[in-house]
Design goal:
By secondary structure, this protein is an alpha/beta fold. The chain has helices at 2-7, 23-31, 40-46, 59-66, 85-92, 126-137, 150-158, 160-177, 182-203, 207-214, 220-230, 233-252, and strands spanning 17-19, 35-37, 49-52, 75-78, 100-104, 114-120, 140-144.
């Protein structure tokens, strides 16, 4: 994310201060010009927007140990899955009413193609929300949702890249089974998925309508679609999204 913010011109590398307990991870930040420090407190004292990017079970600990350095002029952005705003605010707002926001990003943020959603806490202003939209909009797409829908976001876009990787792998395997060399089948499958996604986003047409446009009567595509439907591909995707969303709800109650 940090590289994406810099690439978009939202900040300079030297404006970023980062901490990680592992030296090798701190070196990653130093390599592109950011300042790596040795405590979370140093990050908080140097930052206007503080990103909390730790395992969910460490969120409260990190925020509680730095709460004395936080102020209402700062913004906390948590990207920890399953940690509710109530818990984030309880840890961060011990000394002052610090604005907090939860964001659910996904791994394609690494290539500037993230699909994200966020929910704002009770102390977050409209300006805080706009700041989050500006930052994450620079590395993909972001939408505001009520917090109770973030688990559904986790199931869809947060976990979704894994589903698509499975689909790409399966399509490539199908190409190999049909006779293609793997070094031809895999990039064709990946590009097909990317191209189809761009068609949905850029044309504004419903995926069903776009599918129908490709399916000629009695042709090859409708034969393939029929086989996919017969084997439950649509239901499998729906069940996968809902299973991940259910798991996110379970984690938020831990």
């Amino acid at each position: 994310m940090a590289r994406g913010f810099v690439k978009a011109g939202l900040c300079k590398p030297e404006d970023i201060t980062a901490y990680d307990p592992w030296e090798v991870r701190r070196q990653v930040f130093e390599e592109f010009g950011a300042k790596a420090v040795t405590t979370n407190g140093e990050v908080v004292r140097a930052s206007e927007t503080v990103f909390v990017s730790v395992k969910p079970n460490y969120v409260s600990t990190v925020l509680e140990e730095t709460s004395g350095d936080l102020s209402p002029d700062q913004l906390i952005v948590s990207i920890a899955a399953g940690v509710p705003l109530e818990k984030i605010e309880a840890a961060a707002c011990k000394s002052s009413k610090v604005p907090c926001v939860r964001v659910m990003p996904n791994t394609p943020c690494l290539v500037g193609a993230a699909a994200c959603a966020y929910a704002a806490g009770k102390h977050a202003s409209e300006a805080n929300g706009k700041r989050v939209e500006e930052l994450f909009g620079a590395i993909g797409v972001i939408r505001k949702v009520p917090e109770n829908l973030l688990d559904a976001v986790t199931g869809l876009s947060g976990s979704g890249p894994a589903y698509v990787y499975l689909a790409i792998e399966a399509m490539a395997d199908g190409g190999v089974a049909a006779g293609l060399p793997r070094d031809v089948a895999l990039p064709l499958a990946a590009q097909t998925v990317m191209g189809a996604a761009k068609m949905v986003l850029e044309t504004g047409q419903h995926p069903g309508a776009l599918k129908d446009n490709v399916c000629s009567p009695g042709g090859t595509t409708i034969a393939g679609v029929r086989a996919l439907e017969k084997n439950g591909v649509r239901s499998a995707f729906i069940e996968g999204v809902n299973a991940a969303a259910d798991r996110a709800r379970e984690m938020s109650r831990m």
